[in-house]
Amino acid sequence: MFKNYRLRDYDFKLIILILALSIIGIITIGSAEPAQQTKQMAGVVAGLVIMIALSFFNYSVILKLYWLMYIGNLVLLGLVILMGEEGNGAQRWLKIGGLQFQPSELAKILLILFFAQFIMKYKEKLNTFPVIASIAVLMGVPWIMVKEQPALSTSLVLIFIFCVILYAGGISYKLIFGALAVAIPAVIILVSLAMQPDSTILETYQKNRILAFVNPEEYSTDLAYQQLNSVMAIGSGELDGKGYKNNEITSVKNGNFLSEAETDFIFAVIGEEFGFKGSIAVIILLLLTAMECISVAVRAKDVAGTIIAAAMGGLIAFQSFVNIGVATFILP
């Protein structure tokens, strides 16, 4: 169950990158919401301990529990539907004891681990219809449960992870190009239908967010308010930023114009306080982390290892792009 360890094989680059991002996170949250800084520090310490402990285990042994991971994931997502905590019009959170968390976030990792083992088990038949259909159904069930919370951004991230998993697993290019030939026009048609006044494809708030993105001036006092203030905060930081926990009265953050500054719009705090240099530093660290995961995927000993590393790298890259894209108003 334990690896035969050689210290020179330990990926210290990945650990340093993760620690650097985690420390920046602790510092920035300390400015955005000081009351949450201690909690963030505790989370980083706990994560570091778990990371080091898990690194001593052979992942091939852990993956033998892949069906337990899948069923456990469905149970947690089901509990959200039955007894989940509601907030801001969505029911995404589950409270067990004193711990409140989003099972949809855990689902990203559990589904990567599940499909890593599932695809490796059926890798010789991956490009056959029964296996592809099975994978689609197994992904479709938790995806629908997440989408109905509703959690549109998380459901989009799951689709991206699913694509990375299939590509890393070795799906044939014929199937990839065939799927793209169908998916691209289908998405265009779907978006067009979703934006019709009487359409029920998207929730009303989701449709309004797209309209606010297309025409922000019309929605500047309500639906586009958050993103416009986020862009203002980032732009006001200029090259070097206004400084950590600054007292400037022109600060967008200090004026409480940033909604969810400690979570969804944390990048706006980075932009305002650390400027363009700080923002670019964070983006580079995220990019290097994702690239290091891809490097691990290339060197992995088997298909399961390749899928885990590639999908985690894809998750970090895509989720970072979505979050920063929203904060900089290049995405709805």
What are the SSEs and their pairings?
Elements: H1 12-32, H2 37-54, H3 59-62, H4 66-83, E1 85-87, E2 90-96, E3 99-101, H5 103-121, H6 129-147, H7 152-169, H8 173-194, H9 204-214, H10 225-236, H11 266-299, H12 303-327
Antiparallel strand pairs: 1-2, 2-3
Helix pairs in contact: 1-2, 1-11, 4-5, 4-6, 5-6, 5-7, 5-12, 6-7, 7-12, 10-11, 11-12
Word description of this protein:
The chain is mostly helical and 332 residues long. 67% of the residues lie in helices and 4% in strands. The chain contains twelve helices and three strands; from the N terminus they run H-H-H-H-E-E-E-H-H-H-H-H-H-H-H. The protein has helices spanning 12-32, 37-54, 59-62, 66-83, 103-121, 129-147, 152-169, 173-194, 204-214, 225-236, 266-299, 303-327, and strands at 85-87, 90-96, 99-101. A three-stranded antiparallel sheet has the order 1-2-3. A hairpin with a 2-residue loop joins strand 1 (85-87) and strand 2. Helix 5 packs antiparallel against helix 12 and helix 6 runs antiparallel to helix 7 (152-169). The longest helix is centred in the last third of the chain and has 34 residues, at 266-299. The radius of gyration is 21 Å and the shape is globular. It starts with 11 loop residues before the first helix and ends in a 5-residue tail after the last helix. 30% of the residues are buried. The model has no long low-confidence stretch (mean pLDDT 91).
